[in-house]
Each structure stands twice: as C-alpha cells, then as structure tokens.
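Data availability excerpt. The first of two example chains:
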Amino acid sequence: MERPETRERSSSPGQPGRTKPSWGGGGGGVADAMMSNPEHGLPFLPGTSFTDSTKTAFHRSQTLNYRHGYAMARRPTVGIGGDRLQVNQLSQADLDELANKAPLLTYGEPKPAAPPNFIPAHVAFDKKVLRFDAYFQEDVSMSTEEHYRIRQVNIYYFLEDDSMSVMEPTVENSGILQGKLIKRQRLPKNDRGDHYHWKDLNRGINITIYGKTFHIVECDRFTQEFLESQGIELNPPEKMALDPYTELRKQPLHQYVTPSDFDQLKQFLTFDKQVLRFYAIWDDTDSMFGECRNYIIHYYLMDDTVEIREVHERNNGRDPFPLLMNRQRMPKVLVANAENFPQCVLEISDQEVSEWYTAKDFIVGKPLTILGRTFFIYDCDPFTRRYYKEKFGISDLPRIDVGKKEPPRIKQELPPYNGFGPVEDSAQNCFALVPKAPKKDVIKMLMNDNKVLRYLASLESPYPEDKDRRFVFSYFLATDMISIFEPPVRNSGIIGGKFLGRTKVVKPHSSVENPVYYGPSDFFIGAVIEVFGHRFIIRDTDNYVLKYMESNAAQYSPEALLSIQNHIRKREAPAPELENKQTEVDPSVQELETLIDMIQKQLKDHPCRDNILEAFQVYDKEASGFVDKEDFFKICDSLNVPVDDSLIKELIRMCSHGEDKINYYSFVRAFSN
C-alpha cells in the first residue's frame, strides 16, 4: 500500500507553496535522489516516512449543507486538513459494469410495475364534449319570398355516455322556435338499432337524425385534437351555408323612382265606357276536389285594365263574392330582376314590366294565364266581335261549346293472369269487392257423380330408368279434373304413390288468359298428354271407358273411338294356344267359372278389388294378358291378396299357363263385378 505523502513548504523564494518530501534518518543519497525527482511516484520506504511538523490544520471537510430549508448531502472535495484525496481511478468498462450489476446485487430482482388504475368513462371523459357546427335545410311551402331556409345548429357529442344533443342558437325576432332541437340522448343511426358514435362524425358529411339531414361543416379545436389523436383523418373544413332570406334582409333597401307616364287623356276620351266582355272557364278538375267554374273577363279600353268576375249559380254553395280580381293592369312579361319587387306595398310600373296584357291577347278559343290561373275563353259579346273585326280584322269568333260531356263508358277488362290459383278463381277478385267462389255446374256434378275414366300411361323421357314406369290416369267427369297415380314397384328405386292430385290440366298450346283444359275426347290409345312439362303416352284403358265412349260417341272422334275398340278386342282375344286348349277341355272352363263365382261370394268386400287390374297391367308391358309367376306373387303380396286360401290356390293353378306364366285376366275376374 501507498503511504500518504507528507510535504513541507519550501523556503525557496522562487517556488512558493511547493512542498518537498521529508525523510527521516540516514540514507541521504537515496533520499536526496527521490527528493530531487518526486514526480516519478516512487513509494516511500517503510520506516523512512514522517509527519509534517509544520501542519496545524486537521479539520474535516463539510458533508452536510442546507438549501431552501432542506438538508442536502455534499461530497467532500478535499481530505482532512485540506489534503488531496486519493481516488481510485476506474476504467469506463468497470464503471459500466458496476452501474449495471450493483443495483441488482444490492437490491435483488426488480419487481414488476403495478398495472395502472382503472378509470371509468364517466370519470375519464367527464365534461369532455365534442362540438360540431352544422346546418339543415327546411322547406317553406306558403311564402312568396322564400322557398327554403337554412338553419344553423350546433351538435354536441358527450364522450362520457356517447349521447348527443342538437342546439340552435337563438336569433332575436326570428319568429322561429329555437334553442334545444333535440335533447341529450343516444341517437339511432339506422333501423338495426345502432347508435351514432364519435367515429361516425367528421367534417363535410351528412348525418340523418329523426328524418332531418344535418351537414357538418366545422368543429372546434378540442374536437379536432381529440379525433386526430384517435387516428381519424378529418376532412377539410367548409363554409357555413347562409340563409338567402336573411342575407336579403341585410341588403339595403332599393330606392324606386316612379317614372312619368304619358298623357292618357286622349285614350280616356276616345274609349270611355267601352268595355270588351269575354266568357271564360277555369277547369281545375285535375286536382283534388277541383271543379270547372265560369267567369266573365272585362277589358277596359280606356286604361287597359282587366277585371275578372265570377258567375254564380243558384244553390251552388259558394259565398256571393262578385270579384275574383279587382280592376288593374296585368303584366304579361316582367323584367329580369323584378321578382324581388314588393308588390304587396307598391304598384308595378313600366319600370318592372317589359310587356302588358293588351286587347290582342284576348282571343276566343285560346287559353290565357292570369295570376297563375289558366282561363279558357269560349265566347264574347256582340260589341267585342265588332271591335275585333274593325280593329284587328278578325271576323270569325265562333262560340265554343264547353258543356259537360259524359265520359265514355269504360269497358271492363280483366287484368293479366298472375299465375296464382286457377284463372276462374283469380277472376272473381275483379267482379266484386268481396270475392266469391266461382259457380259450379251442379247438374253436371250430379249426373256424373262417381264416374271416373281410367287410363294406363307411360312416361316419355330421355332417361332409361323412366321407360318402365307406368302411371294410372283418373279423369273425373263431374269436375273435369285429373289425378295421376304411380303404382309402387318393389326394388325399382322409385317411390310410387300419388304423382298428381286432383286438378285441371291446361293444354300446352293454350293462352294464359283463356286456358283450354284437357277433356275426355283427348284421351285415346296413343294420345300424348302433357302435364306440367311431363309428357305421357296413353297405353291402355279399362272396359268402362269403352262403354262411356260408345254411349257418348258424339263427344269423340271416330278415330279415337276406333282405337279404343281395337285395343279392347285385341286384349280380350285369347291366345291361339289357349283357344285350342279351350276347345279341347270344355269341362275345365265350366269348372273355372264356378270357382270364380265362389270366390266372388267369399271375397265380396276385399279392399284390393278396384286397382288389382291396373297393378297387373303395369308388369304386362306387351298387353298379352300373362305375367310371370314371380311378378304375380309380388303383386298379390303388395295388394294383400289371400293366396293361402284353398279356393284361390285352385284358381291360380287353373290360370297357370305352363310353368312360368299366369293368365291374370281370369284371376282378376274373381275380384271384380
């Protein structure tokens, strides 16, 4: 360790205040060498140092100070007695390491900062209000001086609860109820229940509040700083719209100078007591509660004034005011800037009118517009006719008949069919205020009750899976309706059942307004029936259809009747093999008939007796009268035919043809009448 140096002041006058080390004991040579060069910093040898005997100050430097009444610590700059302090000099790297590690080693790991305290909106945004300057336009309907007015408002948005209010500054003597237009509340933005937010507000936009559209033009400084701090880019400010009527009132009043008129004495003396009389009407029937009213127009030649009198009729219900317009000169064309002339307080002069109404403007047979009303002149008196003939050379002023003519009777026409429901049912809405159901042919319904024509049809389709499908058409003669039934076929992949309920089917080439429905004469063997986009081909029919067609042959064409007859005969004709066998075994035929009678008596009320023939015809595609045994038992199982009965087993045996065919015509006879 280094020893503290002790220095004494040199007495040399050339170096005042310089100290030199004092050495005790011997060793004068070394001591003198070290004293002669003290800047080398050589350490003192142990036992050779001594204290300065001339030193008299041993006080410590002050480390505590007071400033403005507070105790402040102060680092000493000198040691005891004013000696220089020996400070250990550290490198910058050591100082940085101590600065980084000393707090961590002394105090440990720092604790995380506490989260900021929650401040509710009503505290954070208390008394913070956004203000926007806006205006809205209000229509003025009953005023000749202004058609609309601009009303300036202030829109306030309260940040603490997102409420808004609209205030209109009060203008003295405005005559308008001003102040609070909309009280403070949350204002709806749309029909979905959303409310206006401060994000929806900006300069240069329109907002609609309760049916009124406000245009925002400017906002205050606080509003601008708040919106910009939230990342909203404000539109440039606009100028506030001014009310045109208010600006007009600010203009100075015009000073009008009445020009001097020419001398009218000659015109007065020449045309005194000469008046042109015209008969006119005002037709206001196009407006609500309007009517056609008669008037008399007087034109005074002495001063070119016009007077309009109303013609009253007895018991017309109107007050007897004789004059519609007082006698005055009527301007025809005003100058360009005459709209602002105060006509209610000052008379119009030649300064504001470029052209006046004269006698040549009143012509019989032409309309004339006076003060917004269009009058039609239809006649005049004899003096007026003579005046026009002498003055203007017009001799033909005929009287025009303006009597009320009865309007032509409007022919009632049905509107276009809208496609909902039957045409007859939809047309009932046009015949009466309370529609009634269309009338039905009761006699036809009573005569044809429970009369049904049945046909077997196939579907004409490009898809191969639809070629084997069979449909039973039922035509109800009482109502001319058609129903379509598809017999279910097991393992066919198609759900059978009702294909079409009872309804009238329109022919494809008929019009929508005058539909033509399918009738009994349209159904015959090979006929194509199109039902709502599906094309069906008639393949077979029952015997009742032939009987009905023969009894009503006038309704059918000879070709249709012949096609049904040929098909029935071909179907009922026995096969050649069966015919030979029947001629050989006559007793078996008798036995078959007896067995059929017994089964009919036993199964009189069986539920499958009506549609059993159609089910077998679906599988008999060639109309041969025979089906396979496998298909035969499938049909019997689907129709709940009691095949386990002894009589029915015997009937099946007798109807069998070979090992795999069964004549279903003989079998069906046991279940029909």
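And the second chain:
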Amino acid sequence: MAAAAGGWWAAACEKFRSARTLSAVESRKDPESEPYRSKYSARALLQEVKQQLSAAEEGGEARLLAVRRAVLEYELGVNHTDTEELSAGEEHLQRCTQLLQPHRLSRDCVSLYIQAQNNLGILWSERDEIKTAQTYLESAEALYNQYMKEDGNPPLDPSEHFMSEEEKLTDQERSKRFEKAYTHTLYYLAQVYQHLEMTEKAAQYCHTTLKRQLEYCGYYPVEWALNAATLSQYYLSKQCFMESRHCLAAASVIFSQAGQVPSAEDNENEQDQQDLRQRKAEIARCWIKYCLNLLQSARKLLEDDIGEMDSFRQMQLKAQRKKEEDEKENGRKKAVLFGTSDICDSVLAMEEKVSSVYPLDFQEAREIFLVGQNYVQEAKEFFQVDGYVTDHIEIVQDHSALFKVLAFFEEDYERRCKMHKRRIDMLEPIYADLNPQYYLLISRQLQFELAETYYEMMDLKVTIGNRLEGLDSHTIKKVNSLAQLAIKYYELFLDSLRNPDKVFPEELDEDVLRPAMVAKFHIARLYSKLITSDSKKQLENMQTSLEYYTFLIDYCEKHPEAVRVVETELELSKEMVGLLPTRMERLRAKLGPFV
C-alpha cells in the first residue's frame, strides 16, 4: 500500500491509538481543576495524524485516505463535543459524513457513518433541537436496515482503519461493535420520541434497546435496571400488567449483578454505595406502584355503584379467568421479552412471586398487598424522613393506599375498620410533624386523606351497629368521635385554601375545586350523622348541615363550570336542601315556641 509505505504510517497508527487511550482511559483520572486535560492531549495527537495524512501522496488511494480522514474527523468531532465545544464538534462530524457520503453503504464505511449520525443526533438533542436530532437518528436507523438487507456481513469497525492487518478484528467482534452502534441509535431514538411525547413509540424503542443490550452484553447493570423499571411504569399506565411485571423482574435480577463485586475490589467509595442503595429503593418504589395499580384496577372492575363488591360481577370474572389466562399465556410467547438463557430462569422466578392477573377475592388481593408492603419497607430504608421528606411521605401514602384498596376486598367490617385505623396510625404522626408553610400541597393531601379515612371508619361503625339491631352508647360515642375527627380534617383542608386574611376564595382554582366541594359535601353529611339525644343540639347540627349543602349549590350557580366536577354531590345536595327544612320544622314543633 503506497499510502502506508514508510515509517510515518506506523507512527500515525501509534498516535491514533494513544489518542483513543487518552480519551477513553486517562481522561477518567484528570483532576477537577483540569477536567479535559487528557482530551486536549488526545486532540493534539489527532490533529498531527490529520496533518500527516494531508501530506501523504494520494495517488490511486484517494478513497482509502478519504475514509481515514473521515475517521479522524469523527474522533475530533466526538472530542470537541466531549469538551462542550458543540459548534466545532458539529463541523468535524459533518465533514466526516460528507467524506463518507458516496461510500456510506460499503463495509468499510457504514459503521462509521452510523456512529457519526448518532453523535450528530446527540449534539442536536443537547441544543434542544429535538426534531433535527430525530432526522439524524432516523437516517442512521434506515442506513442500518438497508445495509443489513443488501449486504449483512460484519462491517469494519472505525478503529480498524488505523490497524495493521494482523491487528484487525474478527468478524464476531466486528458484528458485536456494529450491533452496539445500532443499539445506541435505538437508545437515542427512544429518548427523542419521549421528548416529542410519542410515548408508545418511545416505549417500543426503549424495550428493543434493553433487549439488545442484554443480547450483546452491552450494558451497565444499574443503568439497565433503572431503564427497565422506568419502562415498567409506562406499561403500568396502559394496564399491561404482565409486561410491567416482566420489566420489573428483569430490573431486579440485573440490578443484583451490580452488587456482586466486593466494594474494595471495585474501588467503590461510600458515595457509590449510597447511590446503589438509592437506585435499589427507586426500583422498590416501582414495584409498590405495580402492586397498588393492579389492586386498584381490580377494584374498579369489581365495585358496584356504591363502591362495594359486586358479587355477581366477581362470579362472572372468576368463571372467565381460566379461559383468559390460557389465551394470555399463548400471547406471552409472542411478546417481546428480555433475557438471555442464563438470566431467564431468575427473571421467571422473580415473576412468580407476584401475580399479573386481577385479584378477585381477599386472599388473592392480600398476596399482592404483602409483596407491595415488603417493597414499602425496602424503599423506606433509604428514603427516610430525615433528608427525604417528600419521598418518604409519598411512600407512606402509597402504603396507606395499599391498605385502603385491600380493605375493599375484606368482607368483615370490623377487620376492614382496623385496616383504616392502620392508615390513620401511619398518616397522623407524619402530618403532625409537617410544616404546612413549606409543604402546603402534601399537608393538604394528608388532611384530605385523614378526613376521608375517618369518614370511612364512621360509616363502617354505623353499619356494624345497625347490623347488631341498634347502636349502644359505646358505639354512638365512637361514631360521633370519628365523625368529629373527619370534620376536623376537612375543615383544616378548607382553611388551607383561605387567603392571609382568612377569607375563603370566591372562585376556587381548578386543582382544588373538586376536593373542596367534596369536603363541603361530606361535612354537611357528617353533621347530619352526629347522634345526640339533645334535640336542640340536633337542630343546630341540621342547620350547619343545611348551610354546607347550600354553599355547594350556591357556588355551582355562580360558577356553572363547576357543575360537571360535582354532578352527583350537587344532585344530592339539592335533594337534602329540599328535605332538611321540613325535618327541622318538625323538630322545632316538638321543642315548642321558645326554640
């Protein structure tokens, strides 16, 4: 080879290798005061090789030299983008693609061209020009597909253009590197589609990327696991519980690989260990959401008009289940699943710990609940209230929600009441310690949830008492206490909406409109539920109840757009406003003329 003749070529190859080593290895050791020291040294070497190539006699090897120049332009482009010099990086990458354009489908150019397109895509993403990034990445994807269709042989890796014949890679290694470059294309496309809110396409590309990373062993366990756990939440939003569980099971199995190397051998410091603990807790939180969503979706299927178990529907679904499970299992074989043979068994074993089908009775619901509860404890180990207030409270709220939905499946009202008491016991201490000045939104959420929980417990106690043919004095005291606590928390929530002068807003913001109206409605109902033998007190309670019902009606008359938000509550309020005055008149008549 004329261009390779003489000692200059061997020296050029050596400089090229040194530049790559400086960029990939030595740069990790650069001090914080000079973060790009090795990158700059690598750039200088690449520029020297570029000058040597320019001085070489082209002769009949113009194409060979053009490809080598393209390799150098690519390396310089990556170098400049790594050092945050995007404009210079873009120029080099563009020169690379221009040099390769006529030969981009050839075996010696296709991998380099795709990698240049990938890097241009990343560069434009960093500039927040997502549409431009999409164009480059989709172009890289199309080129890969065209090459595989028309040729398909393992192409040369860019680094091979600066290697001697005996150093060249095997076809197996070439294929591995080419597939890795294409996997990067899909990975960046997944992010681009996510930015463009093309969520279904983003999920599809993310799933394919994760699958390919496992197949070609091109992944970091922690990063892979987090991406799989994140993807599980997309499937969860689509109620694809089997796919969501599979992503989470794979995430847990792959994450476990991250902790297999002892920390001393891996040079991991305390911060690295802390990061690992946090990532593990984040995956646990995704498992909590999975269990919670599965239980809540089952509840929606099974509840009747008043929110209780529809026994007929329950029987129907149990009868259908066998057939549906068989169909689902057959469809499973066609689904895109993760896992090479060596991890498949571990993933399947993890999946078997929790169902992916709707629970139809208490026992089935309890099994899912217990899995969720175990992950709550795991997540709380890291996200403790000291240091992670918001995260900790969200996890406790999810724990409360798990108890709430499990209570739906419980037929014994006393046991159901105890489940709600567990919710109170976990939420009240957190609320008591919370400063609403700094955590107003969370404070409101807790106020409303505590009010609803006490309200639910009061209703249950009334039902239990009525089943026993009347309420004894102890039950009456308990019912009144629960009702007053529910009123207290509803009032605290409503007070939080007042302005600094303690005036309730004339028009409520959209995000608090429904909860505020529901709070007013429930307070009205709670006052009418208070049990007292004092007729005068009873009349006072009825008057208060009437005032709250009237508020809701008046508000909807002034703000017609609120009607659609509280249609049921409005209808019942009108009914009660029609009935209460008559009942109050009867009571006044009994009390005599001095009331």
